Amino acid sequence: MRGSNLRESFLRFFADKGHTIVPSSPLVPYNDPTLLFTNAGMVQFKDVFLGLDRRPYTRAATAQKCVRAGGKHNDLDTVGRTARHHTFFEMLGNFSFGDYFKKEAIEFAWEFLTRVLELPKERLWVTIFKDDEEAFELWQEIADLPPERIVRMGEKDNFWAMGDTGPCGPCSEIIYDRGPEYACASQTCALGVCDCDRWLEIWNLVFMQYNRDADGNLTPLPRPSIDTGMGLERMASILQGVDSNFETDLLWPLITAVEKITGRRYDRGEGGFPFRVIADHARSCTFIIADGVLPGNEGRSYVLRRILRRASRLGMALGLDGPFLYRLVPVVAEIMGEAYPEVVEKEEEIAKIIRQEEERFHSTLHEGMRVLNGILDRAAREGRKIITGQEAFILYDTYGFPLDLTEEIATERGLEVDREGFAQAMETQRERARAAREEGKAYEFAMALASALGETAQSLFTGYERLEEEAKV
Ligand code: ATP
Ligand code: MG
Ligand code: MG
Ligand code: MG
């Protein structure tokens, strides 16, 4: 089953169960400066769960574009090292706003997995929140799961909360066992549900049933709700009988395109790392730019710049000496264009932006590499194992080297970067910028008052500051 068929089949299944199909919201969340990128299907429904917004439907289903490359959910460093993590991925979700609850959510999920997708039941395990006896009973009744395949987990893994206060509740996750041949070395792995590629987490069902107040008290919600999320690429890997998301039809054409551009063969092991990261980053850069973000030095723009430059640098590791990432935009458009026409409509513009940023990077790169090599040589001469924060900051500030790039290169030479020192140098520079802004602010404030926009401007300003904090490296 192709990835696009899976997406359709999911939405059709839930439409048949009375769900309204709602389009994916953009990667830049409306109205929420605290969040860098949309990182789950529920983001566009946050206010509906909170009772602040009403919709003409009580059941919805979506295929949502997600990016997890900063803030609370950050998979940037995991990409390419596991078979299942991306910075950009699609989350399939069904939602109930005070309509059905736990029983139906479990019934729907089980029916979709075992009847529609025909996954073998004996491969499926579930996790539940440790005190959720109701879920424990329901899984046995509905799915006929033996109790030993229902694993109890603690608050960290199986109790979901939107924030410190507000709607929250236990969750239950469905895990696919790839089989003992995929087990990791950990002893507990053989016993069930581990963090490695054997136990593939495919679907999270969140049972929103409490409201948490400022003192931490939980009171039952009058209308409990459902929020679920299933990883499209992960499910596709199971259905297509491949070991990794990167070998599904959603990503494989990107890997082969990198093979063609570099003239090198992909290798499933460690050697394939740059291919996987480049394939992943080509998707996230394309989609982030399609939603209106440009590379830059703050917040979302900086996250984009980091992703893009990292791909660029890994291209160099594969022997490329110049822009190439932009050539993958048409491949992304080809794979994703039907479901997300925006990437086709803006294909040329996106490629141009990526190419310009690659060129900008390359033009400072040579100079920056020279400086970095000087720093590394000096450190070696002085017998240091550490690159100072100030040195890393100069590379960042003057030569556009993201911290992780400096770190990657330093690690190759057996050195570490003083991250704290780097953060301090960054903070000092921020202070300076802030002080400069203060001068202009008195005037701005008067203007804001005059146009009766005082409050809006103020909240925009704090939102912006928080965004900067989140993106801090
Ligand atoms: P994991 O533990 O594997 O990192 P998660 O618990 O962080 O996943 P959830 O927040 O529960 O993920 O998201 C719901 C679903 O979205 C997951 O069950 C998974 O199928 C998918 N998913 C989450 N993160 C990623 C990612 N980085 N790349 C691809 N799919 C993902
Ligand atoms: Mg995760
Ligand atoms: Mg998880
Ligand atoms: Mg999860």
From TrEMBL:
Chief location category: cytoplasm
Location(s) in or outside the cell: Cytoplasm
EC number: 6.1.1.7
Cofactor section: Zn(2+)
GO biological process, one term: alanyl-tRNA aminoacylation
Keywords: Aminoacyl-tRNA synthetase, ATP-binding, Coiled coil, Cytoplasm, Ligase, Metal-binding, Nucleotide-binding, Protein biosynthesis, RNA-binding, tRNA-binding, Zinc
Domain Alanyl-transfer RNA synthetases family profile residue range list: 1-473
Extent of the signal sequence: none
Gene Ontology terms for molecular function: alanine-tRNA ligase activity; aminoacyl-tRNA deacylase activity; ATP binding; catalytic activity, acting on a protein; transferase activity; tRNA binding; zinc ion binding
Function as written in the Swiss-Prot or TrEMBL entry: Catalyzes the attachment of alanine to tRNA(Ala) in a two-step reaction: alanine is first activated by ATP to form Ala-AMP and then transferred to the acceptor end of tRNA(Ala). Also edits incorrectly charged Ser-tRNA(Ala) and Gly-tRNA(Ala) via its editing domain.
Catalytic activity: tRNA(Ala) + L-alanine + ATP = L-alanyl-tRNA(Ala) + AMP + diphosphate
Written domain comment of the UniProt record: Consists of three domains; the N-terminal catalytic domain, the editing domain and the C-terminal C-Ala domain. The editing domain removes incorrectly charged amino acids, while the C-Ala domain, along with tRNA(Ala), serves as a bridge to cooperatively bring together the editing and aminoacylation centers thus stimulating deacylation of misacylated tRNAs.
Entire-sequence positions represented here: 1 to 473 of 889
Gene Ontology CC entries for this record: cytosol
Family: Belongs to the class-II aminoacyl-tRNA synthetase family.
Cofactor: record remark: Binds 1 zinc ion per subunit.
Protein name: Alanine--tRNA ligase
